[in-house]
Specification:
Layout (H helix, E strand, L loop, with lengths): L1 E8 L3 H19 L3 E5 L4 H7 L5 H7 L4 E6 L14 H11 L4 E7 L12 H4 L3 E7 L7 E6 L4 E4 L4 H17 L3 E6 L5 H14 L6 E6 H10 L6 E4 L1 H14 L9 E3 L4 E3 L18 H13 L4 H16 L17 H12 L2
The structure holds nicotinamide-adenine-dinucleotide (NAD), 3-isopropylmalic acid and magnesium ion.
Nicotinamide-adenine-dinucleotide binds next to helix 4.
Cofactor: Mn(2+); Mg(2+)
Pfam families: Iso_dh (PF00180)
EC number: 1.1.1.85
């Protein structure tokens, strides 16, 4: 039995999470295992119900399950709230409370979608890299922070142990892949990046079989677009990882394609990398694949059933190969289908 807490959130969150839940239900029917899904409010949706973006009940539920599935939070309705009350602050809080220090963001190109990328087919074909984004430290959490009428300030700080634990995961994972880690920083300008670089290199002594190189973040943004195939594993800080993974989204055709796993030593949460997309919310237009692929990551990392992860990825691949396209990945002339139609196609390809 798998107990999953779902926190759909705002905007397209509920639409894409509904797609992922259909996939979970189909897997349960097909394989005969029980899946219990408990839904809890989060973000703006929770604010409207309880006057709080993250209630103690939702947080307790997340600590009391095998895995959490999150849609997205945020939207224009809550933008003018003070920073500490915004839905985005609740997202940071849940990551911190559950100590989800590593955010794994794979950027893998599906063959059927090579023409959906804004980059040339030869550049994107065969791209397959994995970003380890540090998720509970750096400038997102550093103190002091604030702003007044004339000044705004944030602090980027990393402790040795924070760098070490994410770099260790990156090295361990690279060993099972192509054995190459690129650590991305801004050590030519930022002292905090110098610490990052020093710690990564010290740790590398334990992983001498893995090839390590450093890259400045501005160059990395360019290299990801110029030649994404050069990367295997990327390890980087919270802010740089946020930005670089959205860039990676465009290699795969759309932000709506990229899943993620946020993991710590005790808990795990799975979420697409995209946001609540207010521009297309409640229109049945969103691409559910990022969230469905996040369920594949759940089976891989939390439930340790990689065969089912592959089954989900295969069903996505087959749906795409048979021509299914939501608007974000459609080319001119393609028939565009809805969120629910894409979900149904993937469920069909999962088989019974
Ligand atoms: N993890 C999260 O919950 C998360 C992540 C990013 C942004 N946000 C929040 O979401 C809100 C909107 O932010 P934004 O517009 O900068 O980023 P966004 O990711 O929501 O949207 C960016 C663009 O990508 C498109 N897009 C995103 N996901 C898609 C999908 N699944 N299918 C098709 N198209 C998709 C949107 O329509 C939009 O044009 C903000 O409040 C922001 O803070 C939340
Ligand atoms: C909404 C925001 C807090 C979040 C982040 O910056 O981490 C988002 O952009 C993401 O990538 O998950
Ligand atoms: Mg982001």
């Amino acid at each position: 039995m798998y107990k999953i807490v779902s926190i759909p959130g705002d905007g397209i969150g509920p639409e894409v999470v509904a797609g992922a839940v259909s996939v979970l239900e189909q897997l349960s029917r097909k394989h005969g295992f029980e899946i219990v899904i408990e839904e809890h409010p989060f973000g703006g949706a929770s604010w409207e119900l309880h006057g709080e973006m993250l209630t103690q009940a939702t947080l307790d539920a997340c600590r009391n399950c095998d895995a959490v599935l999150l849609g997205a939070v945020g939207g224009p309705k809550w933008e003018s709230l003070p920073h500490e009350h915004k839905p985005e602050a609740a997202l940071l809080k849940i990551r911190k409370e559950l100590q989800l220090f590593a955010n794994l963001r794979p950027a893998k190109v599906y063959d059927a979608l090579i023409d959906a990328s804004s980059l040339k087919a030869d550049v994107v074909r065969g791209t397959d890299f994995l970003v380890f984004r540090e998720l509970t430290g750096g400038i997102y959490f550093g103190q002091p922070r604030g702003f007044d009428e004339n000044r705004g300030w944030n602090t980027m700080v990393y402790e040795r142990y924070e760098v070490e634990r994410i770099a260790r995961l990156a090295f361990e994972t690279a060993r099972k892949r192509k054995g190459k880690v690129v650590s991305i920083d801004k050590a030519n300008v930022l002292e905090v990046s110098q610490l990052w670089r020093n710690v990564v290199h010290e740790l590398h002594k334990e992983f001498a079989d893995v090839e390590l190189s450093d890259m400045y973040v501005d160059n990395a943004a360019m290299q990801i677009v110029r030649n994404p195939k050069q990367f295997d594993v990327i390890v980087t800080s919270n802010l740089f990882g946020d930005i670089l993974s959205d860039i990676a989204g465009m290699i795969t055709g759309s932000l709506g394609m990229l899943p993620s796993a946020s993991i710590g030593t005790k808990y795990a949460l799975y979420e697409p990398i995209h946001g609540s997309a207010p521009d297309i919310a409640s229109q049945n237009k969103a691409n559910p694949i990022a969230t469905i692929a996040s369920v594949a990551m759940m089976f891989e990392h939390s439930f340790k059933v990689p065969e089912i992860a592959r089954e989900i990825e295969q069903a996505i691949e087959s749906a795409l190969a048979s021509g299914c396209r939501t608007a974000d990945i459609a080319n001119t002339g393609d028939r565009v289908i809805s969120t629910t139609e894409m979900t149904e196609a993937i469920v069909r390809h999962l088989g019974a």
